[in-house]
């Protein structure tokens, strides 16, 4: 599986955010997207998964087979929102996404164990702290299988220990042949990553 | 897919009692009518079906603006739109509408015959009005989905949604009320307006989700 972007550009509200981006990552690889605020990190992720149209250039997903026809179908997108309902318990939320997304992978309680929320699954999502909410959202990536993870500030609100745990989860995903593209301000301590710097620093 | 229906149904019943607000509004409208009209029982019975329909229509517009907005705020909407490869987006919208209808509008239909008693409606007119509400109210929800999708990015879109969709639901109101009247006024035939009401619901069952998903996609750009 190989995800390639050629000459990619995007607009937001008529303003060109970035243009002429090239990158290619294959199975087991990770790409860190860095850059100052407003450089277009989130926009890039949204363009990649198809939430926003690309203003120019192409995105190619090769060798993914018929099972994953598009990036949107093959990707887990972890945006700024956690996509969890405050009125439902963490378990109910995860069980919903597991059923809705299909391709079940880990069981809900296993996934909660992986992110260190093993004993809190029965709590309403609204009672969790910011970091715990983010960890519940990360558990969503584990309950159904997608080869590509598109992560937008995945570690926002996480403490150091959870960050280490999350790094291990990302390494495990790469070892399973997954691809990771993460927009972040913090080094995620991943082994041999590619880096893409957006904005005026580039 | 069923998971989405179950989730939305749970949320509709649990979160802040959206269904209860609708029923209370409906009750408030219907209960004030006899005081405003005065103690003329025949007049009340005559305007009964129209009042029930108007009340139910306005009450069912109440929670509509939240149909997609709640999902947009917590980021679920992005994921629902992204799942279009696996589940068609219009189907997702259809299921969300059905869940909304079950949680918020079906209780209004169930309450309608009880409120009909307050308007001195005879049992036949009461039953006919309830039946037309049952058949016609899904159309209101499906049209409402279009408005909710168009206004999804607006923070206070509630009134806008109602104003946007009212012209489209007027035909449903007209045929709903005329069917109810046809059941009690002998010369008027019951079946033709009833079948047109069914047709309107079926038509909006298709058009509503299609238009709403187009609006949701466009709202991203």
Automatic annotation (TrEMBL), chain A:
It comes from the Bacteria. PROSITE patterns: ABC_TRANSPORTER_2. Keywords: ATP-binding, Cytochrome c-type biogenesis, Membrane, Nucleotide-binding, Translocase, Transport. The keyword ATP-binding applies. Pfam families: ABC_tran (PF00005). InterPro entries: AAA+_ATPase, ABC_transporter-like_ATP-bd, ABC_transptr_haem_export_CcmA, P-loop_NTPase. Transmembrane segments: none annotated. SMART domains: AAA. Residues 3-201 form the ABC transporter domain. The keyword Nucleotide-binding applies. GO terms for molecular function: ATP binding; ATP hydrolysis activity; transmembrane transporter activity. GO terms for biological process: cytochrome complex assembly. NCBIfam families: ccmA (TIGR01189). This is Heme ABC exporter ATP-binding protein CcmA. It comes from Tianweitania sediminis. The gene is ccmA.
Automatic annotation (TrEMBL), chain B:
It is found in: Cell inner membrane. The keyword Transport applies. The chain crosses the membrane at residues 12-37, 43-64, 98-119, 131-152, 159-182, 194-216. GO terms for cellular component: plasma membrane. Keywords: Cell inner membrane, Cell membrane, Cytochrome c-type biogenesis, Membrane, Transmembrane, Transmembrane helix, Transport. InterPro entries: Cyt_c_biogenesis_CcmB, Cyt_c_CcmB_bac. One of its GO terms (molecular function) is heme transmembrane transporter activity. One of its GO terms (biological process) is cytochrome c biosynthetic process. Signal peptide: none annotated. The keyword Ubl conjugation does not apply. It is a multi-pass membrane protein. Its main location: membrane. Belongs to the CcmB/CycW/HelB family. Required for the export of heme to the periplasm for the biogenesis of c-type cytochromes. This is Heme exporter protein B. It comes from Tianweitania sediminis. The gene is ccmB.
